[in-house]
Structure formats: C-alpha cells, structure tokens
Amino acid sequence: MQLDVIGAGPAYSDRPDAIGSSYLLRSGDSSLLLDLGQGAFARLAARIEPSGLSAVAISHLHPDHFIDLVPLRHYLRYEFDPQRRVRVLAPRELGKRLDSLWGEPGFAAGVFEYQAQAPGECQIGHLSVESARVRHTGDSYGMRVSVGSRSSATRGLVYSGDCGRAADLAPLILPGDDLLCEVSFGPGPAAPGAEHLDGPAVGALAASTNVGRLFLTHLQMGFDPEETLASVRAEFKGPVRFVWPGDQLEL
Ligand SMILES: [Zn+2]
Ligand SMILES: [Zn+2]
Known about the structure:
The structure is a single chain. The chain is an alpha/beta fold. The chain has one domain: Ribonuclease Z/Hydroxyacylglutathione hydrolase-like (Metallo-beta-lactamase, Chain A). The protein is built from six helices and 14 strands. The protein has helices at 40-47, 63-66, 69-78, 94-102, 199-209, 225-233; strands at residues 2-7, 22-27, 30-34, 55-57, 86-90, 112-116, 120-124, 127-133, 141-147, 157-159, 178-182, 214-217, 240-242, 248-250. The strands form two sheets. The chain has a seven-stranded mixed beta sheet. It has a seven-stranded mixed beta sheet with strand order 7-8-9-10-11-12-13, covered by helices on one side. Helix 5 (199-209) runs parallel beside helix 6 (225-233). The radius of gyration is 17 Å and the shape is globular. The structure holds zinc ion (2 copies). One zinc ion binds at residues 10-11, 21, 62, 64-65, 162, 218.
C-alpha cells in the first residue's frame, strides 16, 4: 500500500502549506481517499484522476475533513458527460450537510453513492476498511485500512480522524500497524473539552498498542513540531515523524 499525503493541516493555520486533511491510499488498481478538507481537491487532481477513486471515506462532519467534496461534486458533474459517480463512505448526515451548503436538495446525490459509516469492516476494491467510533463530534470514526481483511495478518494503516480519547483507537490497532494520528495540541496539554489529542497521549497509545511507525498530523497553529516530537518520544521509542503535503510513503 502507498500513502500520498494530500493535506495534513488542522481546521485553520498560518502555515501556507496547511491544506485540510486528505490522505490517498493506493494498492494496485484500488484507491481510497481518507477525508477531503479545505484546499485538498486541487492537489488531489494534480496527483490522480479523481473520478477513478474507488471511494472517499470521511471520518467526521467537520469541514476541515469534508468541505472539498464540493469541488469534487462539481468536477464529477461538469467535467464529464454523462456525469461520473464516486462511492462515499461517510457519517449518515453528510448528504444533508452538502445539500444545505448549496441550498438544494439532492445537490450531491447524483454523483456520490453514499454509504453510511458504521462500526465494522467493509471492502473497497481489494482494500479492507474497518471503522470504529471515536469520541470527537457526533458521529466520528477512526479507520484501519489494509490489503486483505483484518484476519489476514497483513500490516494495516490506522487513521485517527479527529479523536478526543486515544483509547478509542486501541481496538483498531494490531501490533506492527502504522498509525497516522492527529496531535492537535502539540506537546500538550490538550484543552479540556476540546476532544483532540496531544503528544503524550499519542505516544502512550503508540507504545501500549505496539505500532510499527507513528505518523503525526493535524498540528494546530501555534504549536512547534520539534517540541511535539519530543513529547511523543518520551512515551514511544519506535519511529515517529510528522507527515506533510507531498509526502509519499510505502506502507
Ligand atoms: Zn480536524
Ligand atoms: Zn474535527
């Protein structure tokens, strides 16, 4: 499996390269996009043909994780005759949110084949996606993606989405999996009630679940990456780094 980091930013930032969350996973002819936040569509389209995606999986309904479904909708609707369709695995309310943005019922239903996120496993091409609820906002999910099912013992990638309680991710992680995890509050402490993670919490999760490699993302404005890494390394002795837009990683 190959990971292309399209965007790895938080909800807002003064960093010019802080594109909203979006991660492309590919294996053979299967391609799965995890989230599509602000500014990510153009970068995605520069990398692959978006209408060829096997699916887009949305972790939760905060705009920094789904708002560029709007340009994807326009692209599928207006660049092709007949319009093309892409499968979208997302919290149940997504269709309503998109329709209300545009003020038109059915705005995106013509081009998106919605499938409701739910705890459990589903198949996207030959990628297997296992979703689990995490505490963040309403209906929020972390996901494990692997080639072949969870029981096939191939190494997977676990993506945190946004998450306010590290323990919610633990059931998804098998020893040796790579973990792509939000670290919104840098070296910490996370603000009470913010429902995001900080470095010590992420490091402790990675250590207790025995992850292979730890990839950090979604760092909020004002926090220093080096200080954040130091706070993670105090808990987790394995390989850890931030990911940034343009990074390509073999998993
Ligand atoms: Zn976010
Ligand atoms: Zn969020």
